[in-house]
Amino acid sequence: MKTLGLLQGPQTLGKGKPFWSAFTLVVALACAYPLFADGYDVGNNVYFFNWAFMALGLSLIWGYGGTLSFGQTAFFGVAGYTYGVISINFGDAYGLTIFALVASVAAAALLAAALGYFLFFGRISGVFLGIVTLSVTLVLERFMAQTAGPEWRVGAARLNGYNGMGGMPSLTIPWFGSDIVLFPDVQLYYFTLALLIACYLGLRILVNSRFGNVLVAIRENPQRAEMLGYDIRVYQLVTFIIGSALAGLSGVLYTSWGNYITPASMGMTAAALPIVWVAVGGRSDLTTTLIGAMLVLAGFQALTIHGSQYALVVMGALLVLTVLIAPRGLVFGLGTLVAALVNRKPKRQGE
Amino acid sequence: MTVLFSIFSFLYQTGDAFAFLVLSACGLAIIFGMMGVINLAHGEFIMCGAYVCAAAARAGLPLPIAILAGALAAGFAGMVIERIIIRPLYDRPLDTIVATWGVSMVVTQGTLILLGSTMPGTGTPFGSFTVGPYSYSVYRVVLMVAALGTLGLLWVGFTKTRFGVLARATIQVPHIAQALGVNTGLVYSLTFGLGAALAGLAGGLYAPTMTLVPTMGSAFVVEAFVTVVVGGADIFLGTAPAALVLGAVKASLTSWQGQLAGQIGLLVAVIIVIRILPRGISGWILRERT
Amino acid sequence: MKKTLNGAMTALGLILLCSAANAQDPIKLGVLEDQSGDFAAATIGKVHGIQLATEEINAAGGIAGRPLELVIYDTQSDNTRYQEFMRRVLQRDKVDAVFAGFSSASREAYRPIVNQFDGLAFYNNQYEGGVCDANMIVTGAVPEQQFSTLLPYMMETYGKKVYTIAADYNFGQISAEWVRNLVKDGGGEMVGEEFIPLGVSQFSQTIQNIQAAKPDFVVTLLVGTAQASCYEQAAAANVNLPMASSVNVGQGYEHKRFKPPSLANMYATVNWVEEVDNPQSKAFVERWHKKFPDEPYINQEAENSYLAVYLYKQMVERANGSTDKEELRKVIAQGDVCYDAPEGKVCLDPKSQHMSHSIYLAKVNEDHSISFPKVWNDIKPYWLGEVGCDLTKNDPSEQYTPSNLPKAAN
């Protein structure tokens, strides 16, 4: 019960009945959504959900931990390719794709542990850390882009270089009778939604716990945290691993959704995008990050569909305006505004 | 004799890589290194300089004037952007990422809409010369000279002129500078404009050798950033030696194993150098001094 | 009697009404092309080609009496946008066919989705060859069409020592493999091979390597605007060697973008360029410039896109107005779906669903004008059929390469 109590706390926005009622309402609407939306919209929303995990992970690392990691796409790519390699080699029977999912996220976490050790125990911080993580993701991209030849294979799975690896089976849940293949449709929607809610609530508990409090203390003033006896490198490393594992989860879900993964997912533009989504929403809170990322993704897509050649101009202008008008994030600004209105104390008589 | 030819070839290739890194990075070294603004629109200032230079050269201006025109245009654009967008963000470096990314999108797409997907180039001047079995382009040597010249002029400018001293003071201790009556707003604008103008200069210098498309800045951005960060906060004690080290690594690997090795090797070198010197090269040198 | 007549008239009226309504029902064509981002320079023309063909076809009464309607999305040179919009165009807009893709990566990104929804997609770009997929119709040129014409000519004219510089990814590596094999078959010698990662724009070392190897000519398979800078830099260093390419000039119109004489002595095998000099081609160029006066250049991909619309029209009309994929494939299987395109006569091959091409050897002169020393007509896309791809018999939905051949059927 005490753990559940950590669902709200000083590190996350939103507490009490109004917030949780709103939350339940949103979840209910999300569950009911496939009933009144067509197949395209359901699959498209799953596509947006896929990226949400990366945004949440970056919020943890950057918003709560204060570490700007420019290379989350490296873990996205590593997990995606690992999923492809495992599922192509072993197939999708007996729930092996679920094993592939877990193993791929674990591979991303392992890489994060190695890189994180290198970074935090090497006392690399600030913008230097950003550049090192960016270099890592670019090295992976450049390397993978030239693996087109037939010698680049892991078992039966060809890496296939710049053209990308395709042909991997989608996530399949073993079921009595026949397996449920999670195509971008209703079943995948619920699967991803359930994962998203679980991760969101889990992260809320994490950041409101003692771990989260120490993390924020490290973000605010690393030397003070160290003087209080905390080994900040361990906390930063663990945060980095968890956040990068979430990026890896995004990678696996994306690869399964489109049956395709490519080195371009680890390139410069791809690396900058999560930072933009998270910054627009408000990186220091999970809820605002989530809402902000969804809004930016959906908004940019809508602009591209309807805005023809002006879409990119409008998107760029929106980003600039966001930063100038709402410095802590657009959704964060809105959120605090709403919170202020809701929590306004009623005027007492006679004052 | 062959040894001499090989030595010349090695020096040429290293100098070529060094010039590319210095010219791409010095503008960013001022904007990022000195002012702390993470300018993801750096490539667009370069593109601006390249486009203006190419347009001016095609209109008949001699190439050196065209290059200067490119630099000035980029500088002016930089001052405008600084005033409107960057000014409120000086103590929020991470927000400059989003703002400048937005500027980059607007400028790239805007150029595509207004000027089309490609611009015809100007040819490379000065022809070639031969050393031993190879012929080399004279213009690339000109670029190396330009890189060294730019560094020299910057050093003189920042240490010997009044503006340079004021700029460094304003950026390091703005409140004291203001208390002493310095127009800090103007100094910020001019310094940012200088950084943008240097980017434009790089664009103008390389314009005769490259394809001119709105996204051409992306060829410079990554290497500029890694050079500046590896260098650390100081341009002369940081960016220049970083460009030398990274340029040598890139040139050697490229000549030994090919372009892919050069590219990956550069990035791996970045990772290693930052691991050994977590505050960059200039951070290490300056701490050594004190 | 009157009642029967009334009933008959009503029935007839209803039938006429229905067929009239059906006749007005447009045929929808999805267009997913990069109109912004890195690839825009080469692909904006493709959209224009499709628009020009649509305008002409609608002015002449449409396809089987139905107007042709375009649903255009800008994929921003981003593979994820191809995935998003292919789903949208097939599931939401429910188009009858899609014209999509420039880079091979984008094609491989959207192919699983086209297969999932059993749609029909046209890939109108030259590429490395090998796609054996019943849901794809490929009008772009493939290596056997471009290299088996180019390399023997170059070796005969200039000599047998060849140096290849290629973009370091699938297209470049597979094309280089074709070059290697053809050079060996022709008794030549590869004196060097260099692979350049995409996005590289500085070539000083490569230029030196070429000079060290002393080839008779250089095969340049450079892709993307950054890599094209090599020509300018090589000319500045006075390398002065003839060059052979399957991808430059025809796709990226470098001879218009770089100052002469940087591309002098470049030989490119293209299936069409703006400079082709026959009456039909000239008339086509004129119609194009009337509709799009600001077009910097009409490249071969734009011409492919234009003629692909007409091919589609022919297939639908020969299938009695049906846009069903299997009906159209039956028409293709008849083996004579051909069209009189600006490049010449082109035909669809039933086994691979690729297209035969006229191949023009375009030589860039000192002033960057183009002459055509040789023209080959009706070069078929024979390789896929030779290695065992037969879409009239089965649908593997795979991409094969010379080192990844179909398993021999037993």
From TrEMBL, chain B:
Q: Which UniProt keywords apply?
A: Amino-acid transport, Cell membrane, Membrane, Plasmid, Transmembrane, Transmembrane helix, Transport
Q: Which domain of life is it from?
A: Bacteria
Residue ranges of the TM segments = 17-38, 67-86, 98-117, 137-156, 186-207, 219-240, 260-277
Membrane topology, as annotated: Multi-pass membrane protein
> Does this entry carry the keyword Membrane?
yes
Q: Which Pfam families match?
A: BPD_transp_2
Tell where it localizes: Cell membrane
Against InterPro entries, the record matches this protein to: ABC_transp_permease, BCAA_transport_permease
What family, per the record? Answer: Belongs to the binding-protein-dependent transport system permease family. LivHM subfamily.
This chain belongs to the protein called Branched-chain amino acid ABC transporter permease
